[in-house]
Specification:
mainly beta; Jelly Rolls; four-stranded antiparallel β-sheet; 10 strands; about 0% helix; globular; disordered N terminus
Length: about 100
C-alpha cells in the first residue's frame, strides 16, 4: 500500500492508496481453508461464489464460517490480511473467486 502525505498549513493528512489488485480462485471443501496460506497484506477482499456454483459457500474467520454465499453471491470484507478469511462448504465442493485490493 502506498502512502501519500498531504501538507496544508498546520494540518498533515495521510491518505492510503491501492498498490494494485491480487486475484485468485480456490476450490472450497467441507474443511475450512484460508484464501491464502501465507500472510498477504491487503486493504479489503471481494469474495465470490462462482456464478455457475450450485453449492453454498460459507465465509468467516478461522473459528466460524457463517456468512452464506449462494451461486454468484459475493461480499466485500475489509481486512488487512488475506490469510484470515476462511471459506468452506457444508457438502461437496465449490469454486471461490476473490479479488484483493493491496
Amino acid at each position: 500500500m502506498a502512502t501519500t502525505r498531504l501538507e496544508r498549513g498546520n494540518v498533515s493528512r495521510v491518505a492510503n492508496a491501492w498498490n494494485g489488485l491480487f486475484s485468485g480462485t480456490l476450490t472450497a471443501t467441507t474443511t475450512p481453508q484460508p484464501l491464502s496460506t501465507t500472510s498477504r497484506h491487503i486493504m479489503e477482499v471481494l469474495v465470490q461464489n462462482d456464478p455457475d456454483g450450485q453449492t453454498a459457500v460459507f465465509i468467516g474467520d478461522v473459528r466460524r464460517q457463517l456468512y452464506q454465499l449462494n451461486g454468484g453471491g459475493s461480499v466485500t470484507v475489509k481486512v488487512n490480511d488475506l490469510s484470515v478469511v476462511y471459506v468452506r462448504t457444508d457438502a461437496g465442493t465449490a469454486t471461490v473467486n476473490y479479488l484483493a485490493f493491496e
